Amino acid sequence: MFSKRLKELSSKGLLRRIKDRSSSQGSTIIIDGKRLINFSSNDYLGLCSNHRIKEAVLHAVTVFGTGAGASRLLSGGIELHQRLEKLIADFKGTASALLLNSGYAANTGSIPALSDKDTAIFSDELNHASIIDGCRLSRGNINIYRHRDMDDLMRLMKRKGRERAIIVTDSVFSMNGDIAPLVDLRDIALRHGALLYIDDAHGTGVLGSGKGALEHFGLVPEPFIIQMGTLSKAIGSYGAFIAASADITGFLINTSRSFIYSTALPPHTVAASIEALRIIEMEPQRIQRLWNNREILIHGLHSIGIDIGPSETPIIPVLLKDNDSSLNLSDFLFRHGIYALAIRQPTVSTPRIRLTVTAGHTGEDIHALIRALTEARNCRLL
Ligand SMILES: *Cc1c(COP(=O)(O)O)cnc(C)c1O
Fold it and tell me: For 347, which DSSP code?
């Protein structure tokens, strides 16, 4: 039965395949012995293979060993977990922060913990799958509002009864690269006494001076705002956090199932995140380079008439008419030394090549991409 289903997926151009590297993550990678310029990573600041971070990791392994060996509430936690939480709280400007094992675990653990059957959840229709799953695991009443549509959100909020409310949104939407209207969302949350839960996976280390989406909008942390972020993207490590009031993190320690029933992050990933946060604060030029590279890429795409849709960030979609076109273009780019993967239905409604530009790209890398896209267009692939 499953082989038949796999064949069906394959015939629709929907089969997903794992492509493993034989090099470290970075602006160029090696796959199947072939060196490729990589426009499909979330390693925005090039920290996945940073020398100083590697040394911090080696030191942590020497002192604390490899695995955590237990959940945080048993013997899995070490001083490094606490130090990282303090650093994140300071970085994000919150009273407290709690480490979780991944962005997926953070959303699927925290959203159900923060909402009971008397909670109305309001979720943007383009929120990340981990938020969707977190909502589904919760006992709350789920309301999906149209993407970034505040009128639709207010219309839905008016219909709610006496339930508590929580508004959940990506800060940067991971497939479009556009940014949620957080000033309006904050005002609406405040007016309705709602919590505002922001998934800052692609904002942390990218927006503002790296502190994320609130800073980008000139907003400050407040007790009703919960900032979730990942350590797996710009931070170049692994894991996630909730930065919020001490009441919220304290409550999550007691109720979030993905926190309680899972082994703590291993020492070396925690050490890597600590060093990465230091580097982000000490080397602001990395974020500068990221945004300069984005400018260069956007300029190049405009010059050859490619529409970047709603993108406002280093995530830049090249929209295509169907799944096959997106696969064909991705294959063409691969043959021309560019790694840029197709994102298909059902992950997105409009198939696309999702480009992510990073601080590690050179001007020449970006021009190579533009040249390849120009050729693809001459071959009528887009
Ligand atoms: C990547 C991502 C996650 C999941 O984070 P992981 O640490 O990779 O599990 C959650 N939310 C958003 C918006 C993401 O882009």
Answer: T
Q: What is the pTM of this model?
A: 0.97
Neighbours of 32 (CB within 10 A): 10
Quote the pLDDT of residue 288: 98
Residues with CB under 6 A from ligand 1: 102-104, 107, 128, 130, 170, 174, 199, 201-202, 230, 232, 240
Residue 224 tokens, joined: 């009703």
| Among 128, 171, 265, residue to substitute to test ligand 1 (most atoms within 8 Å of Cβ) | 128
Residue 195, amino acid:
L
Integer CA distances (angstroms), 224 to 152, 194, 343, 348, 371, in order? 22, 7, 34, 31, 48
Measured over the CA atoms of residue 354, residue 208, residue 220 and residue 243, the dihedral's sign is positive
- Counting ligand 1 atoms within 8 A of each CB, the residue from 44, 107, 123, 130 with the most, and so the one to mutate, is 130
The one-letter code for the residue type at 30 is I
**Mean of pLDDT values over 366-370:** 98
CB atoms within 10 A of CB 16: 7
Residue 59 neighbours by CB under 8 Å, 6+ apart: 271
Token pair 């040249």 in the structure block, residue: 371
Burial class from Cβ neighbours inside 10 Å (0-12, 13-18, 19+) for residue 79 reads exposed
d(CA 370, CA 215): 32
Give the contacts of 305 (CB within 8 A, at least 6 positions apart). Answer: none
DSSP 248-262: HHHHHHHH-HHHHTS
- Going by alpha carbons, the residue nearest to atom 10 of ligand 1 is 103
Average pLDDT, integer, range 288-313 = 96
Atom 4 of ligand 1, residue of closest alpha carbon: 103
